Amino acid sequence: MIRYKWILPILLLTAGISLAACHSENGSGPAAAQETNIYEDQAESGASDASLPVTEETSASGEASLGELQALIGMEDSSTAEMFGGSQENWTEDKAFYIGRIFEITLMGQTYPMYTSCDDNNIVNSVSVWIANGSRQVTEEEARGWAEAITASVGAEPTYDDTSSEAGSRNWKWVSDQTIISLHWMDKILSLSINPAVGELK
Questions:
Q1: Spatial separation of the C-alpha atoms in residues 20 and 17, rounded to whole Å
Q2: Which residues on neighbouring strands pair with residue 128, listed in sequence order?
Q3: What values do phi and psi take at 10, rounded to 5?
Q4: Where would I find the beta strands (DSSP E) of 86-163?
Q5: The pTM is what?
Q6: What span is annotated as the signal peptide, if there is one (predicted)?
Q7: Average model confidence (pLDDT) for the chain?
Q8: How far apart are CA 131 and CA 143, in angstroms?
Q9: Helix (H, G, I), strand (E, B) or coil at 74
Q10: pLDDT tens per residue, range 93-128
């Protein structure tokens, strides 16, 4: 009778070990907690950003064509928000007036900031692309290259092509049934703008 007094504790110990093993295999307990917190461990150990998950906030600029930029005119502002890889709202400094949106686009192989502006009904009524904003010299060859590329895209010669002798600036304009495309060049400035053709004499 005395030899059996150790059987119950041994059985309880064996059952406890079996339950612990099953608990670990089912993905809970310390082993599972270690696997779940892998990104926290990487962050604490100073792992590089490349080893962390990529979020949607880091998106590359979107490819765009001149025709796609023309198509923005007349669109609802909310419909343009996710175009060309996404945008951010553009407000006046005091947040009292909504201007439009700011995009980063790839146009003709280069990346540029693009801005839209809206009317009181939040309809896009202007698109502008700053090819050079004063930080570098723009050659006449580069400006003419853009004029030729726009002419090829539109399929027509500019209706206006003039050089201002006073300011030294040059302006090109292409008018279609829906939009007016303007290219402005002066010294360190080269900009492209698109507006509705409402009321324009052709």
A1: 5
A2: 115, 193
A3: -65, -40
A4: 87-91, 98-107, 110-118, 124-133, 160-163
A5: 0.67
A6: 1-20
A7: 76
A8: 10
A9: coil
A10: 999 999 999 999 999 899 999 999 999 999 999 999
